[in-house]
Amino acid sequence: MDDAWLEELSFAQRQRLQFIEARLIWDGSVRRGQVCEVFDVTPNHLSRDFRRYRHHHAHSLEYDVEKKAYTRGRNFKPLLASGSAEEYLSLLQAYSISKSTAVVPAMGQVATAESITQPTGSIDPDVLRLMMLALREGRGLSLAYQSLNESDPVPRILWPHTLVFNGDRWHARAFDDRHQAFRDFVLARCIRAEIHSSTAPLAATEDTRWHETETVDVVPARRLSDSQKTVVAKEFGMKVDDGAFVWSAAIRKCLVGYFLYRHRLELGGSASQQIPGQHPYLALKNPELAAAYRFGSD
Hints:
The protein has helices spanning about 10-25, 30-40, 45-55, 85-100, 105, 125-135, 210, 225-235, 255-260, 290-295, and strands spanning about 30, 60-65, 70, 140-145, 155-165, 170-175, 180-185, 190-195, 215-220, 240, 245-250, 280-285. By secondary structure, it is an alpha+beta fold. Strand 4 (about 140-145) and strand 5 (about 155-165) form a beta hairpin.
C-alpha cells in the first residue's frame, strides 16, 4: 500500500481522516453527520474525503446500510490514528476529570469512568502569556518568584528555554540571574511578570543537565513472586533484559529527581523488603542513582 498520498493532505483533511479512524477504532462505526458536525463541513465536502481514503486504502471501510454508517473493512488498519490503548485511556482520563465534550469526538461512545480529584493549581494567565512570548522570541522575563525556601517573593530575571510538566505541575527551565545557573521555576509561583529586553547570559545549549541524559533502570521489587513480577512488568511496560524485567528510561539529568519523586523511588524503592514511603513493587536496579539525584542531594 502506497502511503505517499498522505503527505499531500492538508492539515484539515488529516484531522478529519484521523477522526474517522479513531471513531472506527473505539466506536466501531462512524456516520457522515458526526464528522460534518464536528468539523463544520458539508456532506458533499466530506464525500471527497471518504472517496480519497477508500481509493488509496481499499477495503478499509464498509458501508452498513442498516446502521447508515461506515464500519471497519477487512483491510482496515489505521494510518493516522495511533490506536493505542494508552491514547484512549488518556482521553478517557481527561474526560473523567473535566467532563469536557472537547475530548469526546476522538473517543466515540464515552464509557463510564471516574478519576480521583486532581489538584488544579492557579497559574496567572498573564504570566503564562509572557512566558510563551519569551520562549518564542528568546527573550527574558522580569518577575517575582515565591520560593518555598523564602518567606516573601524575590525579584528574578529568567531566560526560559522550555516548559516542563513533571507529572504534577508545570515549570519553566530557565537561566536564573540570581544564581547564574539554569534552574526550574514552578509557573504557579511566578507573579508580576514583564518582558526583559536583555539577552541571556548563557544560551540554552549551555544547559548541560538538560542536554545530558541518565539511564534509569527500574525493576520489580525482589521480594515479589515470579508471577507478581510479571504483572508489575506488564503494568509498567517493562522488557526482558538479560533474563530479567526492566523499565529502562533515558531521562534528562535535571528531570531525574522528578522521576524518582513521582514514582516514589527517592530511596531506591523496595528491594527485599518494603520501605515506608517508597513504592511497594518497584526498585532501582542501581540504588546509587537515588542518592545522586533525589532532591536535596546536591
